């Protein structure tokens, strides 16, 4: 029996942040409910950020209030980039926080308007407050631009390891390595993971992967990472999303494609594929301005393209 994998759905955050038209709160709720129906065990529902930065998430507190009437909050996580965001997430009831910063100094300035050292200092204060308060809150770090930066190109492995070290010493044991611009390839994935696993072996640090599919290599990269022992991956329904601050870097890996690949390999994802496809069609009705990039879907042994 092959080891099972966990697929974390990031579409409600990563896809919606790129849509200029405001999606009503009840539609966001319905979108997330369709993912729960499909069996996704972790769903990133949005970001706690200033509405001036991303107006799409101005209703994030109202969305959390709506969700917790119907579902366990343990299913959900939310992205934050500073102490205010973390405090607001906790106040709303969120108990799974994802803190994002970049290896690349320039991308960190573009993405969260801070130097990398300032982001790490904020992360240190947040973790200290959580430890002092005894809050039953899980916090993990998402490290962006690990596999490349539009301003710097390839990132030295020494810098990646430095960011991992700075994060791990805060007591954070779950870290996502993010291919923000979709420039990773299986060889680079192997090099980076080999170095990271050598310096930070499991169970000391649990590594996760977040791949974008800009050049069509995300599935190959996921398979390489899985063969190296990684069992947690981010994906977005329909391949929607991408970094809004980087031109020509659209699209996450489609959740449908990841689930299809692993299930066909005999690797359990605990996701109901037919219900996932139903969720994808439902999303496409509500969000028609975001075309699906998933290459292939399978329904009752028939294939169709969106």
Instruction: Return the CATH architecture.
Output: Alpha-Beta Barrel
CATH class: Alpha Beta
Question: Which radius of gyration do the C-alpha atoms yield?
Answer: 18 Å
Report strand %: 15-25%
The global form is globular
Instruction: State the order of secondary-structure elements, H for helix, E for strand.
Output: EHHEHEHEHHEHEHEHEHHEE
Number of strands: 10
Q: Would you tell me which CATH topology applies?
A: TIM Barrel
Structural class: alpha/beta
The main sheet comes to: 8 strands, parallel, barrel
The CATH homologous superfamily corresponds to: Aldolase class I
pLDDT < 50 stretches: 295-306
With strands numbered from the N-terminus, the spatial order across the biggest sheet is 1-2-3-4-5-6-7-8
Helical percentage:
40-55%
Could you give a short description of this structure?
It contains 11 helices and 10 strands. With 306 residues, it is an alpha/beta fold.
Describe this structure in words.
With 306 residues, this protein is α/β, with parallel strands linked by helices. Helices cover 40% and strands 17% of the residues. It has one domain: Alpha-Beta Barrel (TIM Barrel), CATH 3.20.20. The protein contains 11 helices and 10 strands. The strands form 2 sheets. An 8-stranded parallel β-barrel has the order 1-2-3-4-5-6-7-8, surrounded by 7 helices. A two-stranded antiparallel ribbon has the order 9-10. Helix 7 (157-168) links the parallel strand 5 and strand 6. Helix 7 packs across helix 8 (186-199). 47% of the residues are buried.
């Amino acid at each position: 029996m092959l080891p099972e994998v966990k697929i974390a759905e990031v579409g409600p955050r990563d896809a919606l942040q790129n849509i200029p038209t405001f999606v009503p709160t009840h539609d966001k709720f319905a979108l997330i409910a369709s993912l729960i129906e499909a069996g996704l065990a972790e769903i990133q529902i949005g970001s706690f950020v200033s509405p001036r930065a991303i107006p799409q998430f101005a209703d994030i507190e109202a969305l959390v209030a709506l969700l917790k009437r119907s579902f366990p909050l343990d299913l959900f996580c939310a992205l934050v980039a500073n102490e205010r965001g973390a405090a607001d997430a906790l106040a709303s009831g969120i108990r799974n926080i994802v803190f994002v910063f970049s290896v690349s100094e320039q991308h960190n300035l573009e993405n969260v308007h801070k130097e990398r050292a300032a982001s790490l200092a904020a992360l240190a204060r947040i973790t200290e407050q959580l430890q002092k308060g005894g809050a039953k809150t899980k916090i993990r770090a998402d490290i962006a631009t690990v596999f490349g930066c539009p301003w710097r190109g390839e990132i030295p492995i020494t810098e990646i390891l430095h960011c991992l070290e700075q994060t791990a010493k805060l007591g954070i044991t779950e870290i996502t390595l993010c291919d923000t611009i979709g420039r990773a390839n299986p060889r680079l994935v192997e090099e980076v993971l080999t170095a990271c696993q050598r310096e930070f072996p499991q169970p000391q640090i649990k590594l996760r992967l977040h791949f974008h599919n800009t050049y069509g290599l995300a599935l190959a990269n996921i398979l390489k990472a899985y063969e190296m022992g990684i069992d947690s991956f981010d994906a977005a329904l329909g391949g929607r999303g991408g970094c809004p601050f980087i031109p020509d870097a659209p699209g996450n890996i489609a959740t449908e494609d990841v689930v299809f690949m692993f299930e066909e390999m005999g690797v359990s994802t605990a996701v109901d594929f037919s219900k996932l496809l139903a969720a994808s069609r439902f999303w496409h009705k509500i969000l028609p301005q975001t075309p699906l990039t998933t290459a292939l879907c399978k329904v009752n042994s028939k294939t169709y393209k969106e």
